[in-house]
Write a structure and sequence with these properties.
Length: 330
């Protein structure tokens, strides 16, 4: 029981609200128990003749429903051929559609002519939309990429496709230029960071370039270290680099010989000017610890010394020693 009270710190207002909430809960439980045990609903007398009439009506509705269903089934059945009839459809088989084939230029042909050739509505709209945006068909291979154009239609119309000679030459020269491009030309466009020989530097003063010179630290890790340093206010030991998300112990051991730290560069903050949001932004302070710090301040006033933190039961001594590097009392 003592452990429970030592690890649950509640203010006077919070204790009062908790007592009121428990009282309301107990009252509701008593009311529910009374209703279940003592309350007996009064039964309403129902005339037997009314029940009989309701049953007769329901039976009559069921008979009418099944009679109508049998009648519809008999209408949809052909008694001569003993085959079911299909409603709203013609008995004659539809004739297959016939399409016309003629010479055409896919860059100039109109919508109606495309439908005569056998283009579907979707393929027609795709081709017209492609042309409206400045696209030009220069080969059969390009036509095969039209959305909605099936292979059978393309195979049937291939002999009738009429492309101007200058468009064919432009497409042939363009494709040959693409194939002859050297991969080194693309590599030149991509700028790579040249890693320099690592040097020993102060982790409280180093920028992203200094961290990127270390083997295994790239742009992402260097940005994470800088952001972690800003949220802390600075480092007081090089071991804190291992607290950065993603940096494993093997990587930290490899870069540790190049790291030094100057704790005097830490930007300390006045603990009496900190609110809940600013405390929660600190990487080493969670919501429970910030709540404990502010509750003590509201109950006893401003902190007079950082050793006042040792009076809070929910804060470990190691945590208080760490906080002394980042906060002061003014």
């Amino acid at each position: 029981m003592k452990f429970f009270w030592d690890n649950t710190y509640l203010t006077r207002d919070e204790r009062s609200r908790l007592i009121i909430l428990l009282s309301v809960f107990i009252l509701l439980c008593i009311i529910k128990f009374y209703v279940v045990v003592f309350y007996k609903p009064t039964s309403i007398p129902i005339d037997k003749h009314i029940l009989d009439s309701v049953e007769m009506v329901s039976l009559q509705k069921k008979e009418n429903y099944y009679a109508k269903k049998d009648f519809d089934l008999s209408k949809s059945y052909d008694t001569t051929t003993k085959n079911p009839k299909l409603k709203n459809k013609k008995h004659e088989t539809e004739k297959p559609k016939s399409f016309v084939s003629f010479q055409f230029d896919p860059n100039k042909i109109g919508k109606d002519s495309l439908k005569l050739l056998g283009f579907s509505s979707y393929a027609t709209n795709s081709l017209l939309k492609y042309r409206s945006k400045g696209g030009v068909i220069r080969s059969i291979d390009q036509m095969s990429k039209i959305n909605g154009l099936d292979e059978s239609t393309l195979e049937r119309l291939t002999p009738y496709v009429n492309l101007p000679e200058h468009q064919k030459k432009q497409y042939a020269s363009y494709s040959s230029n693409i194939q002859n491009l050297d991969s080194t030309q693309f590599a030149k466009k991509k700028k790579k960071y040249k890693r320099k020989n690592p040097k020993v530097f102060d982790i409280n003063a180093g920028d992203t370039t200094a961290f990127m010179n270390l083997h295994g630290i790239g742009r992402i890790y260097s940005k994470r270290i800088i952001n972690f340093r800003k949220s802390l206010g600075g480092f007081f030991t090089i071991q804190q680099i291992g607290d950065v998300w993603g940096i494993e112990d093997s990587l930290f051991q490899a870069i540790m010989p190049y790291l030094v730290v100057n704790p005097s560069l830490i930007q300390k903050r006045n603990i009496n000017h900190m609110d809940k949001d600013s405390l929660n932004k600190h990487p080493y302070i969670n919501w429970q610890k910030s709540k404990t710090i502010l509750a003590y301040k509201s109950a006893h006033g401003d902190y007079q010394h950082m050793d006042d933190f040792y009076k809070l039961h929910l804060l470990e001594d190691d945590f208080v020693d760490t906080m002394k590097h980042y906060f002061v009392v003014k």
